[in-house]
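quick q for whoever's on today - can somebody do inverse folding on this one?? i tried earlier but teh output was garbage lol. tokens:
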């Protein structure tokens, strides 16, 4: 079964680029344009990994990350922040709120796919260990 990735970004060109490159490595990609839509998709489809922009029109990425980490059903879903905010404060806060990685825009598609594959492999290894 293909890993399910949720890309949350209000810029359609970013979600199109993410979808293109992740589909090429065998992932199924869902997209959301804002935090509320993302939370609804997460509740209904439970993705294997989330790519999350910080600057969203309603609930920002920090808020979405915090909501996910407080819910036992979503707390273990890996989150990669994919954002134009390149400040150390934003990076630190994102990681403190539970994101596992932080990529700044513009990003290298090769780096993105590599990090996604790494986190998915780590998650699969952890699930096998627990079984």
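ok took a stab at it. sequence:
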């Amino acid at each position: 079964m293909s890993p399910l990735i949720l890309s949350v970004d209000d810029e359609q060109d970013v979600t199109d680029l993410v979808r293109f490159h992740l589909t090429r490595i065998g992932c199924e990609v869902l997209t959301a344009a804002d935090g509320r839509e993302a939370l609804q998709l997460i509740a209904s489809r439970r993705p294997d990994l989330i790519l999350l922009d910080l600057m969203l029109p309603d609930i920002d990425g920090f808020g979405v990350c915090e909501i996910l980490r407080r819910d036992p059903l979503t707390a273990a879903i890996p989150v990669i922040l994919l954002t134009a905010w390149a400040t150390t404060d934003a990076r630190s806060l994102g990681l403190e709120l539970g994101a596992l990685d932080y990529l700044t825009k513009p990003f290298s598609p090769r780096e993105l796919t590599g990090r996604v594959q790494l986190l998915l492999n780590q998650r699969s290894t952890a699930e096998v260990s627990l079984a």
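fwiw Helices lie at 12-24, 35-45, 61-70, 88-96, 109-130. also The chain has a mean pLDDT of 94. so keep that in mind when u check it
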